[in-house]
Structure formats: C-alpha cells, structure tokens
Amino acid sequence: MTILCPVDFSAATAAVVKYSAALAAGTGAELRLLHVLEPQPSPTAGGGHDVALARQLALCREAAQAAGAQVTTVVLRGEAAREIVEEARRHPADIIVIGAHGQTGLTRFLMGSTAETVVRTASCVTLLVKPGCPTAYRQSA
C-alpha cells in the first residue's frame, strides 16, 4: 500500500504529515512525501532556497519516521495539483492525504484550490485534513 502526502510547508503541514505517518505506520504502507515547486513569476536565486527546501523536507521525513512510517521523498516542478495527481498515477498511490487550507470565497475563486482539484481529478481515494484537526488519533484494538 502507498500513501502519497503532498507537503507545502504551510502551517497545516505538520498535521498532515502526522496524520499520514500514523496511517502509514498503522497499515504498514509506504509514505511518499511530495513537494511541488511551482513556477515563480520572477526568477529567484536557487542556492539558499534549495537548502531550505531540503531542510524542511528532511524535518517532515524525520517526523514521519519517528511515528514509525517507512518514508520516501520526492520533489517535482510544475503546477501543484497536476503534479500531485500525476505522481499518484506514476507511482501508484492507494490514497492521497492532503491538507485543506480552508480558503473560501474570493481567495479560492481567484487562486483556485489545489486540494479541491486533486479531489476532483485523482483516480484514487483522497483524504482532506482540515486546519485544526485533532492532534490525538484513536487507534482501534
């Protein structure tokens, strides 16, 4: 079983990683942490950004491993929703666990919602983890 967990290093990332790591550890699934680098409107120097990205991804991987998950990481470039769905197809995912940022109204209309697009277009099950989800998870016997 494979769980794909896209991470964007927002405030919701820690909860999404924790939730997907618990799910992976409890089921013996492989957890694939995915970060998508989206095109930027203006060119930026990549050196420092690449180091920061690697550090953030390593922290997510370490947190998931500490929870008992078997973890791999991948970084892709492109439009986030499209790359998430394509990665779930390329490396067959049984479930995508993705954070919902809770955007509503005009912000969502203007920017779109990566999570909403993934839910609509992914061929596998998608689990949305909302902001403020419980930090404790029950485990059945």
Summarize the model shown.
With about 140 residues, the protein is of the alpha/beta class.
Helix content: 40-55%
How many helices? The count is 5
How would you sum up the major sheet?
5 strands, parallel
Strand order of the largest sheet: 3-2-1-4-5
Cα distance spanning the termini: 21 Å
Structural class of the helices, strands and pairings? alpha/beta
**Strand share of the residues?**
15-25%
Report the strand count.
Answer: 5
Question: What's the overall average pLDDT, rounded?
Answer: 85
> What is the CA-based Rg, rounded?
15 Å
Indicate the overall shape: globular
Flag low-confidence runs.
Answer: none
H-E string: EHEHEHEHHE
Description:
With 141 residues, the chain is of the alpha/beta class. The protein has helices at residues 13-27, 47-66, 80-90, 105-111, 114-121, and strands spanning 2-6, 30-37, 70-77, 95-99, 125-129. It has a five-stranded parallel β-sheet, sandwiched between helices.
Keywords:
single chain, 141 residues, alpha/beta, five-stranded parallel β-sheet, 43% helix
Describe the secondary-structure layout.
Blueprint: E1 2-6, H1 13-27, E2 30-37, H2 47-66, E3 70-77, H3 80-90, E4 95-99, H4 105-111, H5 114-121, E5 125-129
Parallel strand pairs: 1-2, 1-4, 2-3, 4-5
Helix pairs in contact: 1-2, 3-5
